[in-house]
Amino acid sequence: MLLAFAACPALAEEYPIEPHDNIRAAAEQHALALGDDMPGRVEVTVGRLDSRLRLAACDKMLETYDSPNSLSGGRGMVGVRCNGSKPWKIYVPISVAVLNDVVVSSHPVVRGQAVQAGDLTVREVDTSRLRKAYFTRVEDVVGLRSKRDIPAGTALHAGLLQRAKLIKRGSHVEIIANLDGLRVTMRGEAMADGGRGDRIRVKNIDSGRVVTGTVTGSGVIEVLN
Q1: 3-state secondary structure 147-197
Q2: Does the reported pTM lie above 0.90?
Q3: Which domains, and CATH codes, for the chain?
Q4: Which of 4, 72, 93, 156 has its CA 20 to 30 A from that of 217?
């Protein structure tokens, strides 16, 4: 199978041939330069060229350029051309991996399970293939609840997990506020569902005043004054 497209006239056998390794090295350097703007450690894999492909040895430095399709999902083409006395051009297939430390499941997690630290590990993953926001810190995942069964070794993202609801709309809650150094507790009614760290509105049952606070525990909302 021909892995790259070349535009050049048929070459006589007596012409020196450009080594495939030179062409592939030029494509690799071009892809690595593209990776300078990518977050993470970049690894480039260059596809092999058809062994039957014979291009004239270039008497000028090889030039590289982006292909019209650029990169998609870490895969694409890099153009390599010779502008010497016997010009040619070719598209070389490449694969670019952008490696980052990502939180993955260390063993299967069942639907509805509250994820604990022992369920997780951090592993280097090619994030160019991930389509949703991923987690890089274990502490950001602990306490979240799985939306479905998750196999071991899965890179965890927001589409797989949700915050456990600690407060339901309309439920009675405890409002905690610090007033002049004093910790004051009041009765309240939640005006929205909330998980740990969410900011929701809550009504003071005694005064009728509505304030916004942060969910810090089951049935507990803290208000800053």
Answers
A1: CCCECCCCECECCCEEECEEECCCCEEEEEEEECCEEEEEEEEECCCEECC
A2: no
A3: 6-98 (no CATH), 99-163 (3.90.1210.10), 165-223 (2.30.30.760)
A4: 156
